[in-house]
């Protein structure tokens, strides 16, 4: 049974087996979570991402997919990079957002990760409304078949924390 926990804080400070990055398809870094992970994790993460682009992901990592690299200097063993969908008022991309959580847990299972920290994927630059993103995230994790013992949602501000807490309780 997977425990779902909430933390108000910085995902780069979480001592877990795997930290999930809200990446973009280039895998070459960005702002928000992506920027923080590369800044704190150091150059080894970007080097591993470049190797992935040169080998399996020449066209970039598809939205909803997930892939793992070293965590570099982070207090974790792996970073699982996933690409969230950009929110759209005209198209329902909920399945792609749910896929980020389900695919990241599948990668965690392949790695043998027991603890996984997730940010609120797509709720920053990609503009997904927080309450809806929290609903999708919690439902996707609750519905996933995974051996991961703890899924830790790491929320960067009070509004995000409240939105996830409302879904968990
Ligand atoms: N720890 C935890 N959560 C964080 C952190 C952090 N250090 N920094 C930001 N967040 C929160 C944001 O407040 C937001 O709620 O993570 C959530 C996701 O925001 P983004 O990082 O902007 O990710 P996303 O909306 O998925 O957009 C991805 O942004 O940074 C670029 O390269 C990235 O192009 C990609 C896009």
Explain this structure.
This is Macro domain-containing protein. Residues 1-169 form the Macro domain. It comes from Streptomyces avermitilis. With 169 residues, the protein is of the alpha/beta class. It has a single domain (3-168), classed as Leucine Aminopeptidase, subunit E, domain 1. Helix content is 39%, strand content 22%. It contains 5 helices and 6 strands; from the N terminus they run E-E-H-H-E-E-H-E-H-E-H. It has helices at residues 32-41, 43-55, 94-111, 130-143, 158-168, and strands at residues 3-8, 16-23, 66-70, 76-83, 115-118, 150-155. Strands 1-6-5-2-4-3 form a 6-stranded mixed sheet, with helices on both faces. Helix 3 crosses helix 4 and helix 4 (130-143) packs across helix 5. It starts with a strand and ends with a helix. The mean pLDDT is 98. The structure holds adenosine-5-diphosphoribose (APR). Adenosine-5-diphosphoribose binds at residues 10-12, 22-24, 30-36, 84, 119-126, 154, 156-157, 160. The site of adenosine-5-diphosphoribose has 26 residues, from strand 2 and helix 1.
Provide a brief overview of the structure:
This protein is of the alpha/beta class and 169 residues long. Helices cover 39% and strands 22% of the residues. The chain has one domain (3-168): Leucine Aminopeptidase, subunit E, domain 1, CATH 3.40.220.10.
